[in-house]
């Protein structure tokens, strides 16, 4: 689908809403993040803007990030950019119990290699970060739906809010990621964005728009979802995984920390569903969706 033919009401996000695609357990892997401030237009392949022409630095940054299990994204402020201040980078650890944020100034793109190698550590920060995907070159729905959400968040939290490049799940636009816990929210409306941020600041998950935490695997995300549906804690820090055992190719036994850290077991199974629809605005049908079901009764909280 070309941009000139794009219609918001027939885009991948609108049709996913109409189908009622499940948000549960759709957060992509994101244990750690490298945020890279950029003031250039973002191409479809975001990291290709790094360094001199040819994209070699972007390829190297992408390789190092894969090896270190780090998710790189470009970031920029909403609205007019202040070019008198230095660009910034951040390294975010989202792993349960290790959540942290470190910021630094970015004098050249090549400096990112020293950041990834640990030669530059940056300054620690306790401020949360709100990312809104607005990567229109990757998918028009992300820009059309994401920019109003970014505007609302930036008006309320100008220092915490950043537009960002592709984070995964175009059909769930507008997508918000709340760091450092790597909480993914989808189909967020402009009117809901500030409340989601406030709830996060208070340490609470909002199930209605919650895709899951990229800091844990999809089976764990599903297990946490099912635990919350029977009354277990909505706290961000609750229901941490203690053990995950794959009992069959598409079946997992997930042990979660319950009240007072008492563990309980959740058994989930994955099923692939094929639908005659596009998963992104640029894709062709059919689409393939992985969904999870609860395979054993759960104790109520």
TrEMBL record:
InterPro entries given in the database record? Aim32/Apd1-like, Thioredoxin-like_sf
**Which superkingdom, per the lineage?**
Bacteria
Pfam families found in the cross-reference section? Suc_Fer-like
What PANTHER family does the annotation carry?
ACTIN PATCHES DISTAL PROTEIN 1, SLL1203 PROTEIN
Tell me what this protein is called. Answer: Sucrase ferredoxin
